[in-house]
Structure prediction request, 798 residues.
Amino acid sequence: MNKLQLSGERFEARYRIAAAHIEEAAERAEAICLEQTVEFPRALIGSPAILEGIVGRVVSLSAGTEGCYDAVIAYPWEAAGGELTQLLNVLFGNVSIQTGVRLSDFTLSPTLAARYRGPRLGIDGLRALTGVDDRPLLCTALKPMGLTSRELADLAYRLALGGIDLIKDDHGLSDQPFCPFEERVGLCAQAVERANRETGGRALYLPNVTAPHRAVEARARLARDAGAGGLLFCPGLAGLDTMRTLADDDSIALPILAHPAFQGSFAVSPHAGLSQRVLYGRLNRIAGADATIFPSYGGRFAYSPADCREIVIGATDSMGAVAPIFPVPAGGMRLSRIAELIAFYGRDCIVLIGGDLHSGHDDLQTNCARFRRLATDAAAALPTSDKSALAETARTHQT
Amino acid sequence: MNKLQLSGERFEARYRIAAAHIEEAAERAEAICLEQTVEFPRALIGSPAILEGIVGRVVSLSAGTEGCYDAVIAYPWEAAGGELTQLLNVLFGNVSIQTGVRLSDFTLSPTLAARYRGPRLGIDGLRALTGVDDRPLLCTALKPMGLTSRELADLAYRLALGGIDLIKDDHGLSDQPFCPFEERVGLCAQAVERANRETGGRALYLPNVTAPHRAVEARARLARDAGAGGLLFCPGLAGLDTMRTLADDDSIALPILAHPAFQGSFAVSPHAGLSQRVLYGRLNRIAGADATIFPSYGGRFAYSPADCREIVIGATDSMGAVAPIFPVPAGGMRLSRIAELIAFYGRDCIVLIGGDLHSGHDDLQTNCARFRRLATDAAAALPTSDKSALAETARTHQT
Prediction:
């Protein structure tokens, strides 16, 4: 091609910029327009076609809260092209190294949106697969690390008998010598299958396929062949586009649960990095996760209810043809909080309880049964139209 | 395997913990020991073998600066196993979601160290390849985005004629419609080759192979077949283990220049995320980069000279069999600062100048020649024993 030809179609990113006054914010926004595209001083760009067509364009700039300004910048879709890696790069590549600027949201233009299939199942598909339509799904993890494959399989069996819907590997189980992937996945998948035969249930086992570059796809296929019902994946460890690859592969065709290991630093500062909405919601969604695990307020991590509402928005609001996905509040949740959590998150969530299922005077299966009863009761107590209750609340809380 | 068997060999991570007093720091350190391994309450772990063998162990805890404490935690090598993805997970997976704790450094135990080949060339190998042994290497980027492949190739030709050692794609060039990868790489590699024939030089062209999961390896092979002299890769966009895969592949066998796009958020807060030493140094090094681009003090980004010293330590200090790699100060460097930069970084760095090569009254080749002359002169002005001068200075500044 001998001449720059662009369609004129642009997609939009919203940045929150810390600045002393609007002129400073405008200057920073203009700098972002250059930094994220040409990375070149405006005055040195000889080509009007590049200046007009490639450089980001400030669409709006308005005062937000806490001395911040919200800048919406429009980029030509061609700058991102057809690749998720490059889309991330245009949205936040170099700007990630700066402070005082945060990617708070983004939307895809039609051509870009058509490149992302999003989740294979999403909320509706995962409900259909598990046969649970009237309450939140129940999830737990196989742990602690150090159990042998046989011990993990025994645990999986009892959890499935107890009525847990999604039984996932702890995200710390990979292919260690004490529970090699193939052995563990085979035994755990069989164990959950056996429990399902006994209960008539449809519990899913989701092994962790976070792995080295060349091993990921093979492990996902191995998991599918062994009878796994889904996959656990940590995009922060093994790449967002790798997750997308698994999601888009029709020969694998399993639901994906995204885990935030090694991603938290992106959302650690209110004035840098990614918003929770983008990190846990938008990005996982376009990269094909069907559910997104995040640290809920009130657990071992420091998120607020407002942060969690933002995550729910990113996971469930309208995003063109990309289906909504399940928010999965986690990170030290307890049985004693089930009613409160479901009152907060509504019916369309997956509640993940780990260690607490193993505590107290009762045995594991009794605790599982209690988990299920508590969730069912809490869901029944919700107003009938609750489906969008949190999303509505959340929208009124948008920052 | 029916019983947990561990070697007792452990590797160590150092965390900087913000706490009001040492008891609070000790409590947080103990919590990290659990969070990063079993992710399970200590009291609920029935197995003494897991408590003794798997859970992290606080090796030391001491008061640091600014109300922080330094905790060294030892993990069994088996928890990380043979995989870089899982090593990252043990070092900082869940803790990344917390504030007030930063991974400041880590060392590998012998078994782990043996799994990481590190850079293929490192500083010495890249010097041998380029034939430059007496001064810093000179690097620049092909930009701005929006130029056609032919225009980029023409630019590459003139940069190579001008005496630039490493001519890399801008990290924003992927496979966009206006400069498709295959076309661009073919033309640019030929252009640099032609310039080398004319000058007798050994300039290298390094195309950007940051790409979707299934495209990365194919692009790297295509680049090699087209005559590229190295690869540019953004591990933050496409995965650290993907970079390691490229580095370890003897059929590709090209040096790798790591670019920090989308990684900056990891090092944005002094009380969370990764230290600059870990992010730009250690991790890129075990993942096989031969040189690490970072935003130097005094440019468009906010790093201090102390931050940059930390990066040099992470890139160059002793790390077992893993060779030292080139620090590549970048991010708005100017020709007027060459002498100062080389006085600071010493001979063993690669200086990356982008836009400034295109500014001023002189043409591009004249600016390139000036860049080379300035670097040669600045290196000649260094004390003969400067090789380790910065590293020494840096060590005395360790925090």
